[in-house]
């Protein structure tokens, strides 16, 4: 059984920098970034999704060099695409995405061996596709992980139809607060009411991250970082690293520390080209661990409630177009 089967609608990504006349073009999407981070660390991972027959397959080369295995369905139509525009300081000033041919992709188009993964990971995709994959993954006994990237906005009713099929979600505080009409505690409460067993990896921007499961809350600080175009994909790297080491039986504090180290390595450079391999992640973790104490609180305790009520969601992470 492979470690991860990952799906979503892959995009042809255009990155526009303030001092460059032409776009940098990569094969991307949140699920592709997660696949790259996993493969670079040695995970057995396959990515499946639709691409246009006209897509330049050379865009896949950096990812296959990392060890990502692709099982892509070539179809007629416009390739899904993403455009990001960066200001001089690295801030994203414009974001646009079109899932194009991915709007019509169906769960039945995934090959049978897709379901051989221990973890079924779902990235950006139409909501109906996400629900269908999650339900089928649950039926087949996979651990189902979702990285929604703000796909549901504040539409909790739509999101609730997916929640019951999930084991884990990877979200940031702004996404969670949006589900609770701007209130972080409300969003967490709604999600846990629908699925009390759901485990939540909740990134907090410059404040670090939380991991919530049943009656436990783990908290880890962040390593301070400057605003940079290199931050793109750091959250996907964080989540991928956390789950890879989790399924290998590492304690949650260790998983959080290694995830932080991997994200720190990723922002050395553009896109997935500077993601760390396993040796680099372990070495960076050993270096950073003294600065990354992991605190633990009982869910519902005064301490846990205080942590959440004092949190200011990082709306710059929300991922919605301007």
Q: Would you give an account of this structure?
A:
By secondary structure, the chain is an alpha/beta fold. The protein has a domain at 102-317: Ribokinase (UDP-N-acetylmuramoyl-L-alanine:D-glutamate ligase). 33% of the residues lie in helices and 23% in strands. The chain has helices at 30-40, 61-66, 127-139, 156-163, 173-179, 184-194, 234-247, 252-266, 278-288, 302-310; strands at 4-7, 11-16, 24-28, 45-52, 69-75, 81-86, 92-98, 119-122, 143-146, 168-172, 199-203, 209-213, 216-220, 295-298. The protein has a ten-stranded mixed sheet. A four-stranded mixed sheet has the order 3-2-6-7. Strand 12 and strand 13 form a beta hairpin. The chain is globular, with a radius of gyration of 18 Å. The N and C termini lie far apart (42 Å).
Brief summary:
Helix content is about 35%, strand content about 25%. With about 325 residues, the chain is of the alpha/beta class.
Any guess at the CATH architecture of the domain at 102-317?
A: 3-Layer(aba) Sandwich
Strand count: 14
Instruction: Compute the number of helices.
Output: 10
The fraction of residues assigned to DSSP E strands is 15-25%
**Secondary-structure class:** alpha/beta
- In what order do the strands lie side by side in the largest sheet? 5-4-1-8-9-10-11-12-13-14
What is the rounded distance between the termini? Answer: 42 Å
> What is the H/E string?
EEEHEHEEEEHEHEHHEEEHHHEH
Mean pLDDT: 94
Describe this protein with a few key phrases.
322 residues; alpha/beta; UDP-N-acetylmuramoyl-L-alanine:D-glutamate ligase; ten-stranded mixed sheet; four-stranded mixed sheet; globular; disordered C terminus
């Amino acid at each position: 059984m492979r470690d991860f089967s990952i799906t979503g609608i892959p995009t042809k990504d255009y990155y526009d920098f303030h001092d460059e006349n032409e776009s940098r073009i990569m094969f991307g999407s949140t699920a592709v970034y997660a696949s790259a981070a996993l493969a670079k660390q040695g995970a057995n991972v396959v990515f499946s999704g639709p691409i246009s027959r006209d897509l330049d397959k050379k865009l896949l080369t950096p990812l296959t060099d990392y060890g990502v295995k692709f099982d892509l369905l070539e179809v007629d139509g416009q390739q899904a695409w993403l455009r990001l525009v960066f200001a001089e300081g690295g801030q994203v000033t414009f974001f646009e995405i079109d899932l194009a041919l991915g709007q019509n992709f169906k769960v039945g188009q995934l090959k049978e061996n897709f379901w051989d993964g221990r973890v079924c990971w779902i990235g950006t995709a139409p909501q109906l596709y996400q629900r269908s994959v999650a339900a089928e993954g649950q039926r087949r006994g996979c651990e189902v992980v979702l990285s929604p990237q703000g796909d549901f906005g504040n539409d909790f009713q739509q999101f609730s139809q997916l929640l019951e099929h999930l084991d884990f979600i990877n979200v940031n505080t702004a996404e969670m607060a949006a589900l609770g009409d701007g209130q972080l505690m409300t969003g967490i409460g709604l999600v846990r009411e629908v699925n009390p067993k759901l485990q939540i990896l909740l990134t907090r921007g410059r404040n670090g991250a939380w991991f919530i499961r049943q009656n436990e809350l783990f908290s880890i600080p962040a390593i301070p970082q400057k605003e940079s175009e290199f931050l793109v994909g750091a959250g996907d790297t964080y989540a991928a690293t956390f789950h890879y080491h989790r399924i290998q039986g590492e304690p949650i504090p260790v998983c959080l520390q290694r995830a932080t180290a991997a994200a720190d390595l990723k922002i050395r450079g553009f896109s997935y080209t500077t993601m760390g391999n396993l040796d680099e992640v372990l070495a960076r973790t050993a270096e950073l661990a003294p600065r990354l104490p992991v605190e633990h609180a009982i869910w519902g305790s005064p301490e846990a409630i205080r942590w959440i009520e004092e949190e200011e969601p990082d709306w710059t992470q929300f991922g919605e177009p301007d």
